Write a sequence for this structure.
């Protein structure tokens, strides 16, 4: 079922998520809802907290070279831990919980992550480029952090001012 995406400054977005303990039908139903919601809202990544569930679950589905978002390229990442990171890269990020705002954010260029799949199998994988950026963005959600918290002091001030103005205008 398509769920509502929580939008900044919703307080739940600041909470830390907890590890999944049971790889059962409830988890599979959550993954299904997350996928439907992400596709419906035209996102490429979503963390469970964004639909109000405080579990360490994230999904990422990047578009391919032809601009198609294929389900076979869907990553379901449960209880992720970053084992190694190196390099640095800057990318113009956006987030379904901060609609309409995009800014350049610096993150590690390569990461090695351990995680579990939907059946509880442990996986270890190295990610680079956009996938590494997306995993770090979504993992921040699991710790209650949004990408706007990585903005410089001045950029954040400008964001807060614009966001308040937008909220007043009811947009
Ligand atoms: C690189 C950087 C960040 C990520 C995290 C995942 N981010 C998203 O999926 C963002 C999606 C998004 C979609 C929007 O809606 C449309 O484009 C129709 C959007 O625009 C508005 O809400 C107005 C903003 C963000 C992954 C990789
Ligand atoms: Co986000």
């Amino acid at each position: 079922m398509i769920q509502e995406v929580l939008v900044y400054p919703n307080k739940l977005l600041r909470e830390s998520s907890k590890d999944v303990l049971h790889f059962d039908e409830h988890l599979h139903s959550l993954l299904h809802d997350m996928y439907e919601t992400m596709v419906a809202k035209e996102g490429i990544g979503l963390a469970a907290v964004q639909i109000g569930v405080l579990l360490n679950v994230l999904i990422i589905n990047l578009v391919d070279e032809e601009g198609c978002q294929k389900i076979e390229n869907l990553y379901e990442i449960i209880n992720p831990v970053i084992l190694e990171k190196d390099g640095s890269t800057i990318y113009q990020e956006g987030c379904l919980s901060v609609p309409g705002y995009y800014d350049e954010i610096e993150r590690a260029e390569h990461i090695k992550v351990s995680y579990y799949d939907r059946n509880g199998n442990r996986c270890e994988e190295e990610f680079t480029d956009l996938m590494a950026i997306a995993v770090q963005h979504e993992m921040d959600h699991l710790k209650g952090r949004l990408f706007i918290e990585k903005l410089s002091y001045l950029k954040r001030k400008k964001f807060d001012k614009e966001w308040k103005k937008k909220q007043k205008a009811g947009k």
